[in-house]
Amino acid sequence: MTTGQTSDPLPPQRPAIRGVLLRRPSARGRWAPAARAGLSLALPATILALCGFGTGSLLAAMGAFAVLYGERRAYLVRWRVILTAGVLLTAMAALFGALGSLAGPDASTVVDLGVVGALAVCAGISVFAGNALRLGPPGPFFFVLVAGVSQLVTRHGVDVGHLVMFSAAGALASLVVGMAPVLSHPRGPETAATTAALEAAESYLASNSGADPAARHGVALSTLNAWTVLHDAAATDSELAQRLWAAHQKVHDAQVSSFVAPLPRPSVARRLAFAARLDSHAAVSAFRAAVAAALAGSIAVLSGLGRPDWAILGAVLVLQLGPDRVHGSIRGAQRVLGTVAGVALYAILHVLDLHVGPLIVVLAILNVLIELTVATNYAVAVLFITPLALLMGGPSTPLPVQIGERIGETVLGVAVAIAAVWLLLPRIHRRTLHSADSAVLHAGTRVLTDGATSPVDADGMRQNRRDLQWQLVEAELAATDSACDEPAWAREQWPEHTRIAAVGYDVLGACWRTPLGQPIGDGVRAELSSRITH
């Protein structure tokens, strides 16, 4: 299916700030994951409290965050994802807990700046990995949160061994709770992902959106996710896969009777290799996050604020997904508004002076509310993240001091983060888009070159086709960011970007229309090759 183009394609407009800032939170489809988030914290914390660990049992929350990373994953791989996240979170607790224990409560300014540097490195690595692997929500923030809280609580008396035990208990509970639904809905994740992809394909076909690259991109993204989940579930020969195959055929106007499922997403190593460029979205996001974390934390230390890690968290929470300027600024405003409200909620809980049992219930409820709101309204989610993070541990300072310092540190972190989005590498989005579009052309050329002699369903060709799809998604993300960062420049580049996207998808369409066991036809290859080199 050859995609037609308008004479003057235009990029999407910048979003309305009011609409994004005041978006109503929606809990649709989030209740089950939210309940799991709450249980993953409540169960281990309750057991630890009964064993006599007091308020230290609340630190089980650090490992309990692991359950969030397994959501929407097929159960056949979910346990590995949760286990991996739990091990990494516990390792982060051990590493930064040991660092905090060495620093002690009365560390010098030089030592404090060294801790800030370590947290900045943690932020940079976490942000790069999260964006390169396209992990999506909940993002790398919780790894930085665990690092910050761990170094803080061990400075003030929490034993490192106990800290690791608390985190491991939360991770173990996450594994049990995250896998529990397999007993009642063993095919739930792949059914949900396939249904979403089928609905996107039906909407695309019904609206006759062949000339709209954004619509085609949305279908491609949901379809790629569905195939990935089906692969993860070892269900590529299932009835769900057959339905997805039929929809995929319709989107590409193909009529191939034999069924060969597309490959899943690239391996971790391959995704990291794709992002290993200085101008990639992941690299730029990581650089900005690391610099902002180091600067915000250093200013907090030199200003005598009580928790420089809080300023770092403020910056990372804004920058973790590599937002464009508009969304980054909105996210910063949401962070400040949510923190002010969250500190007020924390003050109420502080005055109530709850015992361990009620505190566990409160933290579990906060975890539920975070999961319900984080995907649709960030400010509301931060309202619940703030007291959760503050209740997990920290020095006993007077409440008014805590309130003033936490708000001040948040404003500092957000201000530095927004400055980083606008001022640090201010034109890098140009290089990122050009690089992403060039990667699409290179991947398309590789498909056509190998497709001259290799059947379209050969293992190497299937990998090439999968990589082209991955690069198309990356290019669309880069283009959307450019449209928000610099609308005038994006308008000039949009015809060329849409041309590249169109030929990339048409190369994939040609592969789908070619009978299995055969290479791409000479005439089709020649026409597509000429469009690539245009």
Written overview of the protein:
It is built from 21 helices and no strands. It has 534 residues and is mainly α. α5 (109-132) runs parallel beside α13 (308-319), α8 (188-206) packs antiparallel against α9 (213-232) and α12 (281-302) runs antiparallel to α13 (308-319).
Brief descriptors of the model:
534 residues, 2 domains, 0% strand, disordered N terminus, 21 helices, globular
- Contiguous runs where pLDDT drops below 50 for at least 5 residues: 1-6
Question: How many domain regions?
Answer: 2
Helix content: over 70%
Computed CA radius of gyration, to the nearest angstrom: 24 Å
Quaternary organisation of the protein chains: single chain
Largest sheet: none
Mean pLDDT: 90
Q: Which class of secondary structure composition applies to the elements?
A: mainly alpha
Q: Beta-sheet strand percentage?
A: under 5%
Q: Quick one: overall form?
A: globular
- From the N-terminal CA to the C-terminal CA, the straight-line distance is 19 Å
Number of strands: 0
DSSP helix count?
21
Written as H for each helix and E for each strand, in order along the chain, the element string is HHHHHHHHHHHHHHHHHHHHH
